[in-house]
Amino acid sequence: MKVGKSIIELATELQRRAGAKSDYVASAQSLTMTESGSDLIIAGASAGASGYALSSHAHNQIGAWAGVPAKYYDRMKAEAPHLLAENINHWFGAATGVRRMIRTLDGNARAFLSDRYRRIDNEEIAEAVLPVLFDGGDSIRIESCEVTESRLYLKAVFPRIQGEVVRGDVVQSGIVISNSEVGLGSLSVQPLVYRLVCSNGMIAADAGMARYHVGRKVGDGRDVEALLRDETKMADDRALMMALADVVRASLSDMRFEATLAKMRLATDGPQIIRPVQAVEALGKAFTVNQRESQSILENLIRGSDYSRWGLLNAVTQVANTHDDYDRATQLEQMGGLLLDLPSNDWNVIAEAA
User: Fold this and answer.
1) Which of 30, 140, 151, 199 is the most buried (most CB within 10 A)?
2) Secondary structure of the chain: what % helix, strand, coil (to 5)?
3) Is residue 253 within 8 Å of 259, Cβ to Cβ?
């Protein structure tokens, strides 16, 4: 499993971000993209005429909202930013009655969202779940945590809940708590399996809790308004955080782990990979895997000399341990869970690839 921040480093960064972010709901007609194509001006917002530097994610969201194909949007941004600004400003001006939420951090516009987007902030989640995790003493170990531009991750392992896939291959139960403040996924709690022999993590496909960031429209209709925490939001958040803490406590049960462990044991049997190179190529077609990742998976598979579904699963999740990008590392851990649940016919296509 990829190592991220220490829990103290994570708490410090979440606290810093809490004081460095601002949210606005604004009419589309009050927005302007600068001629450089790199900044967004929100009329009346604190950044004033200088605007907020647009993140790549916010650019993607603006392009999708305006209906501009991503390839063309990126070309305009790189080669003709004035043309990009002209296009986007036209659609801003034409959007009568449309309001958008703009989330900012450190002077940058990091997300361009619906005015129905419900803000579930990372620091609130940490405040709700960390006491539960710490109360577990030696029965809970925080194995990895990180906050990236797009998501918060807390990965905890429960050492007392464990079993053997095969003799000597011990795995332990755990959970992954994740959230996106910028519209890239729900608040979720998912089962995690931690393999002791190689420190691999696999995220099971089923979710213990998923709460999407969709709620009532926010704001009172003014052209531009800074969003604060109103009493309704605070009450809703308290209820949600209590439910989140309850889900985390319930995850300490070994019932779900036993079901996943049974699947892992079955994955050691059945059709074996015949041609490793072709099998990894077929895996790349079934999932999104780039060339560098495919090469690492192949090397791990051959080095491990386990050509079962379990062997390929671990070849995939092992790539996550040293991946440069924490978000992508977590996606590879999720891929392991999807591979475990892959229907037999789809597994056979990989195992028997020619």
Assistant:
1) 140
2) 45, 25, 30
3) no
Q: Strand 108-114 relative to strand 52-54: parallel, antiparallel, unpaired?
A: parallel
Q: Is 135 within a domain?
A: no
**Of 306, 330, 326, 303, nearest in space to 317 by CA:** 330
Residue 330 contacts residue 320 (beta carbons within 8 Å): yes
Specify whether the CB–CB gap between 9 and 327 falls below 8 A: no
The total of structural domains in the chain comes to 1
Q: Go through 156-178 and write b for each residue having 16 or more CB atoms within 10 A of its CB, e for each that does not.
A: bbbeebbbebeeebebbbbbbbb
Domain range enclosing 320: 268-351
What CA–CA distance (Å, rounded) separates 97 from 221?
9
d(CA 150, CA 78): 23
CA distance 56 to 140: 37
Q: Residue 295: inside a domain, yes or no?
A: yes
Residues 6+ apart with CB under 8 A from 303: none
What's the whole-model pTM score? Answer: 0.89
pLDDT in tens, the chain (354 residues): 998 999 999 999 999 999 999 999 999 999 999 999 999 999 877 665 568 999 999 999 999 999 999 999 999 999 999 999 999 999 999 999 999 999 999 999 999 999 999 889 999 999 989 988 888 777 889 999 999 999 999 999 999 999 999 999 999 999 999 999 999 988 899 999 999 988 899 998 765 677 777 666 666 656 666 666 665 566 777 888 888 888 888 877 777 788 899 999 999 999 999 999 999 999 999 998 999 999 999 999 999 999 999 999 999 999 999 999 999 999 999 999 999 999 999 999 999 998
Rounded to an integer, what distance in angstroms lies between the CA atom of residue 147 and that of residue 6?
Answer: 11
Is position 276 within any domain? yes
φ and ψ at residue 64, rounded to 5 degrees? -65, -40
